[in-house]
Structures are given as C-alpha cells and as structure tokens.
Amino acid sequence: MSKLLPLLLLLLLAGAALLAHGMPPISRDYNTHCHCAEVESRVVPPHLLRSLKLLPQDAHCPHTEVIAGLTNGEKICLNPQSSWVRKLVRFVLRRPSIQQDTRA
C-alpha cells in the first residue's frame, strides 16, 4: 500500500497536467462568458447614444450582443431581437466610418 500511494499521486498529477495543457490560458483579457446578463428593449433616443459595440456570437457567448454607450457614460445592453435595435445595427453597419469591435 505504501508503494502504491506515490504511484497513484504521480498518475493523478500527470493526468491533471495533461488536462491543463489542452486548456486555453485564462488572463484578465480572456472572456469566458457573455458581457450582457440582461438586455433592454426600451427605445433609446438617438441623441442619448454615444457609441454602439457589436459583439458577435462565439464559443463563450451563444448570441450576438449589442452594447450601447450613452452620453452620460452609462453602458446598457440592448436586445438584439428588438426591431428598433436591428434597424440601428443595420444603419451602423452601412456607415463606412464605423469600426466594428470583434472578439479576438
């Protein structure tokens, strides 16, 4: 039994090292979840909008996220299924001067 314990510990550590090797590194800049826990469907007047950030679905978030920056500095998540948000996104995507933010 006393010789079996070190062998079991060695196998356990080797297995953990193999599992950890295949996992992506986690750092401050690594997003492992969606940014928006809740979304708003209410219409935001255009004069209150300062910026619009479009985050496409990826491995960490199964849906598209639309984050609006307001003139008062607040950021809110908009419901991408709302008709007015879809129209706003189409308008923004048609403008050549707007840069799209994508997750890298």
TrEMBL record:
Keyword Signal carried by entry: yes
Subcellular location: Secreted
Pfam families according to UniProt: IL8
InterPro entries linked: Chemokine_b/g/d, Chemokine_CXC, Chemokine_IL8-like_dom, CXC_Chemokine_domain, Interleukin_8-like_sf
Every Chemokine interleukin-8-like domain range: 31-92
GO BP annotations listed: defense response; immune response
Keywords associated with the record: Cytokine, Secreted, Signal
Keyword Secreted: yes
Cellular-component GO terms for this entry: extracellular space
Family the UniProt entry places it in: Belongs to the intercrine alpha (chemokine CxC) family.
Function: Ligand for cxcr3.2. Chemotactic for macrophages.
Protein name, entry field: Interleukin-8
Organism of derivation: Merluccius polli
